[in-house]
Amino acid sequence: MKKLFIGFFCIFICSFVFSESMDGFWGIKFGDSKEKVKQVMNEKKCIVIKEEGDFIIFTGVFTEQNVKINFTFFKNQFYTVSVQYPHDKNMAISKWQENMSLLEQKYGEPDKKIRKFISPYMDGDGFEEQAILNNKGILVGQWNFDGGDTISCFIYNDLDTYIMYSDAQINELHNIFIQQNKMNDL
Fold first, then answer.
1. Which ranges in 66-167 belong to alpha helices (H)?
2. How many C-beta atoms lie closer than 10 Å to residue 94's C-beta?
3. Checking DSSP bridges between strand 150-155 and strand 28-29, what pairing results, if any?
């Protein structure tokens, strides 16, 4: 029994010591203000193209590619960002695979990886992008971190590829706030 306990304890400690953490995006910490995000993004030569309510959208270069970077805030705290890679014709899946490979190099194998198509489409049939456009295909990878934070890489039905970084704590507060507002309407 003592050996079993020591074994589980060692596994727990090793998983804690070697687990990758994620506390933000590109040097910006989850919870940072809009002003801080704009300052850091300006230093990275990114340009604000839209700022409205709890959203700021930038254009810039990320992973050596021109992208849109969409930040979401709750009570002036950054909690989600998505990096949007515009699609090139017949290149959406290869862009997703390239981004998945980069993320795997940094964070290891994803906790979830789904590549699924619904009839009449099949993986490898050459019509995968058409399937995604018609909401009959999904490609997504997701990494889960301590505290529930996540990174997801997926292709949306506009064939743009996205990498999304999300903070679990502020996201949960935002969801509670939305639910309370719905309840107040009743």
1. 92-107, 128-133
2. 11
3. unpaired
pTM above 0.90, yes or no: no
Residue 13, in any domain of the structure = no
Number of folded domains in the chain? 1
Q: Is residue 7 part of a domain?
A: no
User: Over the stretch 158-179, which tens digit does the pLDDT of each residue have?
Assistant: 999 999 999 999 989 988 988 9
Tokens representing 180? 């309370």
The token duo for 22 is: 């994620």
Partner residues linked to 59 by β-bridges? 47, 68
- Distance separating alpha carbons of residues 18 and 53, to the nearest angstrom: 39
Q: Residue 103, SS3?
A: helix
**What is the mean predicted confidence (pLDDT) over 88-96?**
90
Alpha helices in the chain (DSSP H): 2-18, 34-43, 92-107, 128-133, 168-185
* Strand, helix or coil for residue 186: coil
Can you give the residue range of the structural domain that contains 95? 24-185
At a CB cut-off of 8 Å and minimum separation 6, what does 177 contact? 74
